[in-house]
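Backbone-to-sequence.
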């Protein structure tokens, strides 16, 4: 078992953020990120991708954890529909609503603004919020962008290509998602590796189509490491972000609760508990960022397929 360190008031004090005298709930953490770090933008992410610098992504669902992740140096924060499982106790992400995603996106963005954070925020379009039509997808994406997201994420290939193009054409950055797509886990037959055997050609085709449609990022979840590395080399305008997809991707993403070792169920194979040896949540997040940047995590043989 690990012990969470409770920082004292001075540790959490941030003189650059608005203070609330008399508040019994403390303040948000001071960033250790160099003051010279530019706010993360789409051009900055493209620059990192082209230069081979690994992109770090982590989920967050509220103001405080978003501020801690930013202070730890995480470049991109995903307000994931995984909140349905880790926050709401649902058995899958299918029950998450657009209103719920909007609420949590607003919370994350408020936290970052309080500490003058620099992270790029991605909001998940939940199940049922973009499948009906391109117009429905636009309505849903606008809701998350107005809540403060810089980019939206949607799952699947094939039919989603037209949706991605429609959104990008209207100035909405899009992160695509292939491989294991949790919103369609029932159709996939469970949480299993995708893109093996003959399915690899289909996944590759969908990835290239999504890049051509304008997707700037592509999450690859539970995809064989060799296939992920191959796609990363081929997709020069779309940064691949792996989760259980090996070390050859342009970046990595994990669910925050998983890296802190507080998953309510079985710990996935592709996760490392970064609280081991850490004295605080922020230290664990810093260790995650460092490991991704140094390419000591993930390890293909241990965390991939």
């Amino acid at each position: 078992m690990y012990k969470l360190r409770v920082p004292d008031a001075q540790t959490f004090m941030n003189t650059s953020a608005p203070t609330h005298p008399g508040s019994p709930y403390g303040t948000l953490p001071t960033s250790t990120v160099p003051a010279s770090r530019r706010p993360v933008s789409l051009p900055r992410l493209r620059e990192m991708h082209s230069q081979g610098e690994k992109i770090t992504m982590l989920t967050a669902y509220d103001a405080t954890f978003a501020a801690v992740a930013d202070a730890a140096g995480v470049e991109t924060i995903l307000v994931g529909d995984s909140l349905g499982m880790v926050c709401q106790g649902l058995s899958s992400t299918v029950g998450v609503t657009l209103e719920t995603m909007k609420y949590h996106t607003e919370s994350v963005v408020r936290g970052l603004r309080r500490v003058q954070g620099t992270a790029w925020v991605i909001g998940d379009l939940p199940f049922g919020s973009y499948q009906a039509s391109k117009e429905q997808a636009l309505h849903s994406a606008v809701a998350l962008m107005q809540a403060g997201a810089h980019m939206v994420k949607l799952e699947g290939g094939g039919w989603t290509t037209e949706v991605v193009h429609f959104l990008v054409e209207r100035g909405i950055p899009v992160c695509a998602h292939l491989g294991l797509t949790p919103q369609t886990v029932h159709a996939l037959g469970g949480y299993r590796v995708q893109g093996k055997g003959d399915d690899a050609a289909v996944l590759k085709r969908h990835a290239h189509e999504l890049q051509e449609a304008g997707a700037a990022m592509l999450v690859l979840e539970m995809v064989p490491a060799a296939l992920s590395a191959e796609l990363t080399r081929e997709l020069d305008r779309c940064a691949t972000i792996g989760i259980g997809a090996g070390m050859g991707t342009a970046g990595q993403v994990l669910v925050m609760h998983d890296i802190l070792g507080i998953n309510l169920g079985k710990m996935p194979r592709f996760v490392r508990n970064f609280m081991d040896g850490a004295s605080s949540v922020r230290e664990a997040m810093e260790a995650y960022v460092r490991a991704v940047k140094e390419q000591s995590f993930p390890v293909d043989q241990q965390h991939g397929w």
